[in-house]
Amino acid sequence: MGYLFEGEWVDDSHDKTRLQEGRFNRPTTRFRNWVTAIGGPGPSGEGGFAADVGRYHLYVALGCPWAHRTVIMRRLKGLDNVVPMSVVSWHLGEFGWTFDRDTGSSGDAVNGAERLSEIYLRADPKYTGRVSVPVLWDKRRNTIVSNESSEIIRMFNSAFDEYTNDRTDYYPQELRSEIDRVNDLVYTNLNNGVYRAGFSTAQAAYEEAFRGVFAALDELERQLSRQRYVAGARLTEADWRLFPTLVRFDAVYYSHFKCNLRRIVDYPNLWNYLRDLFQTPGIADTVNMGHIKRLYYGSQLKVNPTGIVPLGPDLDFTAPHDRDRFVS
Questions:
Q1: Does 195 qualify as catalytic in the annotation?
Q2: Do residue 149 and residue 182 come from a single domain?
C-alpha cells in the first residue's frame, strides 16, 4: 500500500512517520470541514456546507471500522435517502481503495472514479496524505467536506434534522462529559489500540498496546455490569464508536492482530452488550463479515502473508441477551 505525496502515489517506504521505534502512528485526517444546518462554519474548517437532500455523498469501506461508524449513524438517523453512499472494494491493494465491482464495490456513480485516490485529487490535485475512508463528498462544490469519521457522525447526528423524522440525539448535552471520557478511553486503547498491537514491529510496542487493549476491555466490562450502555442508561455515540471494534474483535483482532488474551465472548457483560447493539433495528445490515475478514486477512499481507481468510469463528450475534434487566 502507499499514499499520495503532492498528488503522486508513492509506496510506504517514503513515510518515515508511520512507524517509530516499532510503534504504529495513525496520521491526522486532513479534511475537517462541517456540514451544518444552514451552512455556518463548524468547529473547524470553513463554512458554506449547508445540509440538503442529495448534495452530499458518503464513500465507505464495509470492512473498515472507522467507516462503519458513519454507516451506522446514517442508518440510525434515517439518512439513507438524504446522503447516498458508495462502497469501495474490500480489497485494499497496492494503490489503495478501488471501485472494483469484482471485489465487492458498488462502483462510483457520482464521480466515475476507479480508485478512491481520484476523489482526493479532485478535492486537492496536490494532496499529500493517506487515502482513507470514510469520505464525505460535496457534489455542489466538488470537494471533500470531511474524512474524519468522528466528526461525520456528529454531522449526521444533528445537521440533517430538517430532512429526517428521527430526532434522537446521540450526543446529548447532559452526557457529553461522560461520552467524551469513554470516547477517549475507547479510541486510544481499543479503536486504535488494536491497530497499534497488530502493526507493531517491536515486542515492547506490541506489549504496550496489548496491555492497553485488555485494560480498557476490563474497565468496560465493569461499567457494563452496572449500566446498560457505556455512558449510562441511554444509547449514545460512545456505544456506536465502540461497536465496530467489538464486532470485529473475535473474528479478526484476536488472531490477526495478536490481541489474544481473551475474546469478547469471554466477557459476560460485553458479549451480551454487543448482541444488544447488534440487534438494534437496522444495525445487523451494516455488518458485513465477509468484507471485514477479507479486508484484514486478504489485504494486510505484512500481517498475514498467505492471504488465507479463516472460515471461523462461528459467532451468533442474534442470540438472546440479558441487557433488558437494566430499567431506564
A1: yes
A2: no
The contacts found for 138-143 with CB under 8 angstroms, 24 or more apart, are 138/49, 138/55, 138/56, 139/54, 139/55, 139/56, 139/57, 139/110, 140/55, 141/48, 141/49
Domain residue limits at 92: 2-163
- Note whether 126 and 224 are same-domain residues: no
- From the candidates 163, 171, 187, 195, which is the catalytic residue? 195
For the chain, the residue count is: 328
Task: For cell 470516547, name the residue.
Answer: 183
Assess whether 32 and 134 both reside in one domain: yes
Number of domains making up the chain: 2
> Which residues are bridge partners to 229 per DSSP?
232
* pLDDT at residue 302 is higher than 90: yes
Question: Helices H, strands E: what count in the chain?
Answer: 9, 8
Active site residue 267: no
Asked whether residue 104 carries a pLDDT value surpassing 90, the answer given is yes
- CA distances to 51, 65, 78 from 281, in Å: 25, 19, 11
- The catalytic residue among 3, 64, 170, 254 is 64
111-157 pLDDT, tens digit per residue, is 999 999 999 999 999 999 999 999 999 999 999 999 999 999 999 99
pTM over 0.90: yes
Tracing cell 464486532 back to the chain, one arrives at 247
pLDDT, tens digit (0-9, with 9 covering 90-100), for 44-93: 999 999 999 999 999 999 999 999 999 999 999 999 999 999 999 999 99
CA–CA distance, 324 with 328 (Å, rounded to integer): 9
Q: What angle do CA 144, 248, 97 make, to 5 degrees?
A: 35
Q: With a cut of 70, say whether residue 32 has pLDDT above it.
A: yes
Cell numbers standing for residue 39: 451552512
